Amino acid sequence: MPACVQEISGRCGLSTREVAGVLQDLHHCGLIEHATTGEGFLRLRKDPARVRIGDVIRSIEAVRPMTPKEGAFAPMFDMAHAAFVDALNDYSLSDLATLSGGEATGAGFVTGLHGVSVLVPG
């Protein structure tokens, strides 16, 4: 089933304000949508097996750009960050749930590692 901010907040151990900010970013990226089942409910737009973690990070960074780094190490950190995000694309949201001890086969929240919840289409 789709979930609301309060449910996600309770499962992730974050404030509703923090969750609302992340969800707003994910909505702007086109990763989640408002569910037709109720006011204020959200759901993932794609199958979690098709959503790559690195792509999620890049999408969020596109709507919430980081402050440009300066100094001699900036190019090195940029390359390291790019390599890290590329490596994250080896995993999907479904993989994340599985790796953290959860399961991504049912509808609703998939929980595993403390603080990690994946909302799957219902």
From TrEMBL:
This is Uncharacterized protein. The lineage of its organism: Bacteria, Pseudomonadati, Pseudomonadota, Alphaproteobacteria, Acetobacterales. InterPro entries: WH-like_DNA-bd_sf, WH_DNA-bd_sf.
